[in-house]
């Protein structure tokens, strides 16, 4: 966590003690400390349990890395409903194939938006970014792909000063919101330029047998971010390695193992997971599969997943069960998450070797 967030978190931490009578103060302090420990133990940036169902957030090199022409993705996460203020994260992206070259290489691009709001101060992050990629295909039937991606965007961070409470607003007996807290912030929002890049390799033997591994660096420009105009406060680069495979194990079932590792400054997270894809229908015009599986964000939360694929539409839901030091406040409640992916594929033209039917 960078020092700007430490400053805001400290204010929020100091803040929350003040609402209650003296008898409740110890419990609130312990809960907030646990919350802070939980947040510090994770990566600085937003993160989804369903990381492979949020491709442009995961790696810019995932741009245009799908079987189709246009892809729409939506993600929403709501967590810690048992604490006074829930944490909400929403993301939406669209990416597409711009052109397919004669050697079957592809050039693509897309857009990514995400919004995150957390805590009493309503500390918010709004990101709008554009992604670009070049996809190199080679090998027998182009079963090997290397994709290079680049992402550039702007981030706005803000908080609501009026929602905060401070220790000097206690007059010795009770909290008085009319007392001036005498806290001076240079600003309550700011923008910065953000850049990321990545590379992905994919082996694709078919829709039910493939393997993907990617590496990316987010915030490689180390942008300055501070509510106090402190140029020394930098957003640390975030390093990411993600792995996903899909392997056919029977006529009606595939296994999909997944893994994510992220590191930002001294903080890191590991998320292994696996789900089974059980096919209800494998017809070419009606492919239906049920997804069931589990993930584990090491040291923080296990999660369960259930979802469905219907042709080019994927919908998956998951729920985290908090098991970190934040459990006194969370009561083991974690976060509900939903992802939606829809892919559009253009109808392929008939080869010139086919004659057109005269009635049409």
Give the helix/strand layout.
Layout: H1 3-16, H2 22-40, H3 55-58, E1 70-79, E2 87-100, E3 106-118, E4 123-138, E5 144-158, E6 189-206, E7 209-218, E8 238-250, E9 253-264, E10 267-283, E11 286-297, E12 301-310, E13 313-321, H4 327-330, E14 333-344
Antiparallel strand pairs: 1-2, 1-14, 2-3, 3-4, 4-5, 5-6, 6-7, 7-8, 8-9, 9-10, 10-11, 11-12, 12-13, 13-14
The total of helices stands at: 4
Radius of gyration, Cα only, in angstroms?
A: 24 Å
Extended strand count: 14
What class do helices, strands and sheet pairing give?
A: mainly beta
CATH class label: Mainly Beta
* Strand order, sheet with most strands: 1-2-3-4-5-6-7-8-9-10-11-12-13-14
Poorly predicted tracts of residues: 1-43, 349-360
- Can you tell me the CATH architecture? Beta Barrel
State the major sheet.
14 strands, antiparallel, barrel
């Amino acid at each position: 966590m960078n020092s700007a967030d430490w400053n805001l978190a400290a204010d929020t931490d100091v803040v929350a003690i003040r609402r209650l009578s003296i008898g409740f103060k110890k419990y609130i302090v312990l809960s907030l400390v646990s919350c802070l420990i939980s947040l510090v133990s994770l990566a600085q940036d937003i993160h989804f349990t369903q990381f492979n169902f949020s491709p442009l957030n995961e790696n810019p090199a995932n741009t245009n890395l799908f079987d189709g022409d246009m892809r729409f993705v939506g993600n929403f996460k709501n967590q810690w409903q048992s604490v006074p203020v829930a944490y909400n994260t929403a993301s939406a992206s669209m990416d597409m194939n711009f052109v397919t070259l004669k050697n079957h290489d592809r050039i693509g691009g897309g857009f990514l938006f995400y919004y995150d709001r957390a805590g009493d101060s309503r500390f918010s992050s709004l990101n709008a970014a554009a992604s670009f990629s070049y996809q190199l295909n080679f090998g027998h039937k182009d079963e090997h792909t290397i994709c290079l991606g680049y992402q550039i965007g702007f981030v706005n961070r803000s908080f609501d000063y009026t929602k905060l409470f401070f220790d000097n607003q206690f007059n010795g007996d009770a909290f008085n919101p009319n007392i001036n807290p005498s806290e001076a912030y240079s600003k309550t929002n700011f923008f910065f330029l953000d850049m990321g890049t990545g590379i992905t390799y994919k082996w694709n033997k078919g829709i039910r047998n493939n393997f993907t591994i990617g590496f990316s660096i987010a915030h490689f420009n180390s942008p300055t971010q501070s509510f106090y105009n402190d140029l020394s406060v930098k957003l640390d680069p975030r390093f990411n390695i993600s792995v996903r495979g899909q392997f056919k194990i029977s006529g009606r079932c595939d296994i999909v193992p997944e893994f994510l590792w992220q590191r930002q400054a001294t903080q890191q997270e590991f998320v292994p997971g696996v789900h089974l894809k059980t096919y209800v229908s494998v017809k070419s015009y009606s492919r239906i599969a049920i997804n069931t599986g589990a993930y584990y964000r090491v040291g923080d939360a296990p999660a369960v997943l259930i979802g469905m694929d219907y042709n080019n539409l994927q919908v998956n839901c998951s729920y985290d069960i908090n098991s970190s030091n934040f459990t006194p406040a969370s009561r083991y409640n974690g976060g509900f998450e939903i992802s939606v992916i829809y892919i559009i594929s253009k109808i392929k033209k008939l080869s010139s070797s086919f004659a057109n039917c005269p009635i049409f």
